[in-house]
Amino acid sequence: AKVLRINIRAGQMRAIVPEQLQFCFEILSKESPIVEGAELVVEMLPVKGKCKSCQHEFAVEDYNFVCTKCEHEDINVLQGKELLVSNIEVA
Questions:
Q1: pTM
Q2: Tell me, what's the pLDDT at 20?
């Protein structure tokens, strides 16, 4: 089988630069005939939080981990720390 595409989901808190990841992937994939020429697709996920006090879910802007509803600072991060392969397409 030959890998055609690898889909990655990366949270904003991982500070991944998709272009840099693509560059590294292209270099490393040349060493594997199975992966060489495959497309790497990076989906960046925004940071989302949930207030432990009022249970309000909100988008975290500029790493300001304060509830947008009640201004409480005790927040659970629901999304934004991920770094995973969501799927691999093969021929």
A1: 0.81
A2: 95
Going by their DSSP bridges, the two strands 57-59 and 83-90 should be labelled as unpaired
Residues in the chain: 91
Alpha helices in 3-74 (DSSP H): 18-29
CA distance 44 to 33: 28
Tell me: the pLDDT tens digits for 16-74?
Answer: 999 999 999 999 999 999 999 999 999 999 999 999 999 999 999 999 999 999 999 99
Nearest to 61 by CA among 74, 71, 72, 48: 48
Task: Please report where in the chains the tokens 């490393």 appear, as a residue.
Answer: 28
The C-alpha atoms of residue 1 and residue 51 are separated, in whole angstroms, by 46
Strands (E), 1-91: 3-11, 39-45, 48-51, 57-59, 75-79, 83-90
